[in-house]
Description:
The chain is an alpha+beta fold. The chain folds into 3 domains: 2-126, no CATH class; 157-298, Beta-Lactamase; 303-398, Alpha-Beta Plaits (2-Layer Sandwich). The chain is 58% helix and 16% strand. The strands form 2 sheets. It has a 6-stranded antiparallel beta sheet with strand order 3-2-1-6-5-4, sandwiched between helices. Strands 8-9-7-10 form a 4-stranded antiparallel beta sheet. The radius of gyration is 42 Å and the shape is elongated. This is GAF domain-containing protein.
Amino acid sequence: MAWKKLKEYLGNLESKKTNTYSLIEVLIVYLVVYSVTLIVEHKYIEQLYIIPLIIFSIQHNIAAQLLNILMYSLFVLFISKREYNLGEILLQYCIILSAFISSLFHQNRIIEIKLLKEELKRSEEKLESSKKYINYLEDVIDKLKAKLIYENEGISTLMLDLSWVYVEDLREFAYIFLEKVTTFLEIKKAGFYLYRNGFLRVIASIGNPSIGFSASENQSLVIKKALEKGSCSIFEVFNQVSHLEREPLLAVRVGEEKIIGVIIVEELEEPILLNSIEKNLKILSVWLATKLEGIEEEMKKYKLPDGTYTVDFYNKIKQRLADFFEKYGLPFSEICISIHNDELKSVLKVIRSDDIIAKIKDDGNRISLKILLPFCDEIGQISIMERLKHVSKTIEFSGC
């Protein structure tokens, strides 16, 4: 409100300044013409006054136009030394009357233009309001479309089925989710990857993932665009990549403000259904994000104050990973170590965020730990062991 009043005040100041300048301009022009008539002696020199009279009658505001007529009358009829006969006087009055009528027409045109501008402004405001209403209606239509998809394609039934699943482990739920979704949508190969600081790590996969168990977000243009705008299919980047075989068919982001992960589809039973599958996965991803956030919170209750997990929780996750290995052939590894107690924090910093570490023995100064590495083969295990050697001078490895 204050800003609007300030703008109006400044606008009024500008208008007043313009009006003053126009009055000064009229005075100066007539004084210049008067000076010319004094210097140049010619029979018709005083006819120069008609020029500013005509020009100013179609310029400026009504005040400047009235001053224009007044100055013309003053200089031509009163100050001029020329003697006019009756016919010339009548002619001058006709010229003055014509100028006055022109000024009225000009002023009327100014008012019309001002009214048209105001009408245009109101129309623009109505248009902006209409655009907002249209956007609102589009949102409503999108929601109705989503509802139709739920009902017509059975997504609501699938989500209801998934909502009855109760698990406390993120990986287990991700597997159950993928199993049901890939069967329902006829997807041959897909994976769910957790996203952390620009890197992806698989926690569930139907089929052996072609892009690997871990990847950078810049490794795939499809994945990168999905992280940016919500989803991306191979069709959108068809002309932007040179090696299409390295790209997944589809990637859908899970999470909005906080990105939890990405659903990646690599093979389909019917590739022609890719657009429909993208639409359905986007709907499911919103529900999945909420579910996974809840499971992450549940998992925290198994975490001890020192950063390790309970042995029971460790064994439960290990058994599930063993089941996944038997069913899908996805690897996992274990590392058993003994370190000084004060080196635990350093060890926790170098393991991956989704690794599980449990304390199995505590002799006071020295502790024994078991580290569970989901989706980690022998090469990955060796890499982590090397990192552990760098942060612990007292580390001792043993069989698990």
